[in-house]
Amino acid sequence: MSRQALAQAGRWRRLPLIETPRLRWGLAAGLAVYLVLALSTIDVNWARVAEGASRGLNFLAAFTQPDFVSRRGDILDGILESLTMTLTSTVIGVALAVPVGLGAARNIAPWPIYYLCRGIITVSRTFQEIIIAILFVVMFGFGPLAGMITLAFATIGFMAKLLAEDIEDLDWRQVEAVRATGASWWQTMNHAVQPQVMPRLIGLSMYRLDINFRESAVIGIVGAGGIGATLNTSISRYEYDTAAAILLIIIAIVLLCEYSSSHIRRWTQ
Amino acid sequence: MPVSTTPQGTPTWRLRTTRAQWLGYLAWLAGACLFLLCWKLISDNTMWVFVEDAGRQGSDLISRMLPPRWEIAHRLWQPMWDTLNIATLGTLLGIAMAFPVAFLAARNTTPHPLVRSAALVVIVSSRSINSLIWAMLLVTILGPGVLAGIIAIALRSIGFVGKLLYEAIEEIHPTPVEAISATGAGRLQVMSYGVLPQVMPAFAGISVYRWDINIRESTVLGLVGAGGIGLQLNAAINSLAWNQVSVIFVMIFATVLASEWISARVRHAII
Amino acid sequence: MLTLSQVTKRYPTGDRALTDIDLTLPRGQVMALIGPSGAGKSTLIRCVNRLVEPTSGSIRLEETELTRLSGNALRRARRAMAMIFQEYALVDRLTVMENVLSGRLGYVGFWRSFLRRYPADDIAEAFRLLERVGLPHAMDKRADALSGGQRQRVGIARALIQRPRLLLVDEPTASLDPKTSRQIMRLIRELCAERELAAIINIHDVALAQQFADRIVGLRAGEIVFDGKPGELDAETLTTIYGEEEWDTRVQEEEAPSAAASAAPAPATPLTLATGGAR
Q1: CB–CB contacts below 8 A, A to B
Q2: Do B24 and B141 sit in the same domain of this protein?
Q3: pLDDT, position A238
Q4: Which of A62, A157, B256, C58 could form a disulfide with A125 if both were Cys (CB 3.0 to 4.6 A apart)?
Q5: What pLDDT is stored for residue C276 in this prediction?
Q6: Least CB-CB distance to A59: which of B141, B216, B257?
Q7: What is the domain-level CATH number for residue B153?
């Protein structure tokens, strides 16, 4: 019976999302099998969990009375180092991302440069900051310099990709209009491309600043400077009140960052 | 864009007024000073001897990585499977929790402003704290293993998915919602008929996007003991077996590229 | 059956949208509400089904005082009043059938509606209504695949499946072309007659209002300034409602130059407006 006739008789069902029944049931079965397989890989040591549960409660309790004082020196140094790393890496990363982004835009870059720049972007985006940090720590030794280079490298991939996408779909008529006046390549960039991508570039830089700060809090785990080392120590020593203090500071700074970046974005537009 | 007249009477044009121009210079100067100050702090904390050595260290590292020891690849399938599971199950758990939080956080669907603030706090805390930090905490609580990784990924995903989803909810057309309320529908019915169909595509897109990011993040959770390929990576690095590290890198690279491709295709199909 | 007395709406910004509205609507009457943009037409009908909360006054639907209802009582009251919207207000990503069935939400429970397990009677009725508005073949199409006129028909079917006693219609023709507008107005008119429905129709187009309504109420700056039969509407009253303008189109056509030159209101001759004149 057709769906219309069924509806007339008061029997109607919602259209299924996937029309072919075989595909529909196949997908559902595949999903179920995957879930069973994946869930079976989780092996939980319940004795260990029971033991840890009290620590979990301790940790939650620590948030009600975070301890900012007893490791004040370490926290202050770490936060300061994180902030300096964040700022310098963002500035350097964005500065380097601009040429890479220009090179990775299909509509303005010649082929060999395009592939080179796309390669840089892919490598930088694929690996987690922490993996890159490990390599740079081996090369440059422990300390904030390795962290800064790590974050700058990650910034290049992030910013250059988005910048390239922006340039690829900019309004081409404006570029042609400027070119028609007889402007050189640099003049075209300055008068036709820059005004179109600038507001978003500023917005993205602010966003990346925020991300870099959050990342700077973890790359310390592998020795690349910042608050991460202090956090790592306090957690592995079960000093949850200090850890809670550090986490609260991170949350506060991220909030501040977000609040001010929305202001700066409004101001630049 | 002021046009002024010189004493000779010829009009000149400048992009900005003199005052604005000086303010601009001043801002740049302040920025440069801040940057230099930060740079000095970093440089003070750096052993420059090591840095001078960096080129040699780097080439040394590469020579140790090559050629990769492909023989160990067969030992890596199991941890890679764990990594995929951490990312996928973590994403599923995360979006399941983010979904209600986003509805509580969106201005037009929240039951009460106080509830909204609470939901926003949840989103911000989850967003501010990297999944690696969550993993560190959870490993001390649950013990090392895949479960800690899954929960760490889920906790981090709440903020990301929640934020993007509540922004999507705030941008829906209000008229269908009004129309559904006018039929005498209850609160939940208004959500399921008026709001849900409008945000579903955004929700699916955001979830797939987050899954892609989570694959990337779950590759390193093992560094702090939360399961997956990161455990192998950590072991290889600690034993300075760089030719094994390079094999792991290649596998991570391939997996991440594949997941990015899948996610881009799925998002393209949805939108 | 519907009685408004002393209804006032003041927005938090301090703007007075409605001032002391008194209005009684008997069963089966189709009333057109006309007035300039911002006169409070939309606010008035939204106060009736409480999409907008009136600041003071009383609104009674038969025996029920609407202004004090909340929760389930408000839901039950809203079932009796169906609304038809300007931009159709369909849920674009749902199918036509689902949109029509959403008119039953006030009657079925959450899980039934969530799983789309509507009672057989509702489904059969939904299909009958789709046939009545001429769209049975579009049942499984998504709402955003329809044209404007078709969407408004779906909107009407959704309203009628509520089995309402009162229709609240907000600018039903504002986004439609003249021909479709007439068809939609005629459909609403016929359906009201078939089911003995009372209706309040907000409408910009005075000619349409005259053609299809039993009664016309003119609103200006939140106050009722005219209430009468369509035939009683003349240039003078239109001037009180909308302000000064050259109302008589016939005069305009014949003496265009002089009419354009003088800003004086047209003489108060018995009026035949655009469509009336054309026929």
Answers
A1: 151
A2: no
A3: 82
A4: A157
A5: 38
A6: B141
A7: 1.10.3720.10
Amino acid at C98: E
Q: Give CA–CA dist C74/B17, Å, rounded.
A: 61
- CATH class of the A69-268 domain in this structure: mainly alpha
Q: Which of A215, A214, A123 is nearest to A161 (CA)?
A: A123
When pLDDT is cut at 50, 70 and 90, the band that residue B3 belongs to is: low
Residue C54 CA to residue C256 CA, distance in Å, equals: 45
Domain ranges for chain A, please list them.
Answer: 3-40, 69-268
CA distance B184 to chain C (A): 4
Predicted confidence (pLDDT) per residue in C153-175, tens digit: 999 999 999 999 899 999 888 88
Work out the mean pLDDT of chain C and round it to a whole number.
83
Could you say which residues from 119 to 158 on chain B have a Cβ atom under 8 Å away from some Cβ of chain A? 124-125, 127-130, 132-133, 136-137, 140-143, 145-147, 150
| pTM (2 d.p.) | 0.83
Q: Which residues of B touch C104 (CB under 8 A)?
A: 183
Cα angle value A244/A247/A251 (rounded, 5°): 135
Chain C residues with CB-CB distance to B200 below 8 A: 93
Q: Is residue B52 part of a domain?
A: no
- A8 neighbourhood in chain C, CB within 8 Å: 124, 127-128
Q: Higher pLDDT residue, B155 or A259?
A: B155
Which residue positions in chain A have pLDDT lower than 50? none
Residue range of the domain that includes B216: 76-270
Q: What is the pLDDT of residues B80-109, one digit of tens each?
A: 998 999 999 999 999 999 999 999 999 888
Question: Cβ C79–B184 below 8 Å, yes or no?
Answer: yes
Kindly give the pairing relationship between strand B3-5 and strand C16-25.
unpaired
- The pLDDT assigned to C267 comes to 42
- Which positions 114-173 of C are in contact with A (Cβ < 8 Å)? 116, 118-124, 126-128, 136-137, 139-140
**Would you state the pLDDT for residue B5?**
65
Minimal Cα–Cα distance from B260 to chain C, Å?
28
Contact C110 B178 (CB under 8 A): no
The answer to whether the CB of A130 falls within 8 A of the CB of A221 is yes
B20 and B82 housed in the same domain: no
| B positions 209-268 inside 8 Å of A (CB) | 216-217, 219-220, 223-224, 233, 237, 249, 252-253, 256-257
CA B188 to CA B181: how far, in whole Å? Answer: 10
| pLDDT tens, residue by residue, C167-217 | 999 988 888 888 888 988 999 999 888 888 899 999 888 888 888 888 999
- Angle (nearest 5°) at CA C15 between C10 and C17: 60
Which string of DSSP letters, residue by residue, matches B40-94?
Answer: HHHHHTS-HHHHHTHHHHHHHHHHHHPSP-GGGGGGGHHHHHHHHHHHHHHHHHH
- SS3 of residue C22 by DSSP: strand
> Cβ A12–C123 below 8 Å, yes or no?
yes
Question: Looking at the structure, do residues B220 and B105 belong to the same domain, yes or no?
Answer: yes
Of residues B190 and B14, more confidence is placed in: B190
Total domain count, chain B: 2
- Residue B85 and residue B12 share a domain: no
CA distance A219 to A148: 10
Please list every residue in chain B whose beta carbon sits closer than 8 Å to the beta carbon of residue C115.
none
Whether residue C258 is contained in a domain is answered as yes
Using CA atoms in the order B166, B171, B174, B177, what is the torsion angle rounded to 10 degrees? -40
Query: How many separate domains does chain C show?
Result: 1
Candidates C121, C144, C246, B216; CA nearest to A126 is: B216
CA distance A92 to chain B (A): 10
Give the other-Cβ count within 10 Å of B61's Cβ.
16
**B138, B16: one domain:** no
ipTM of this predicted structure: 0.82
First-to-last CA distance in chain B? 42
Interchain pair B200, C104: CB under 8 A: no
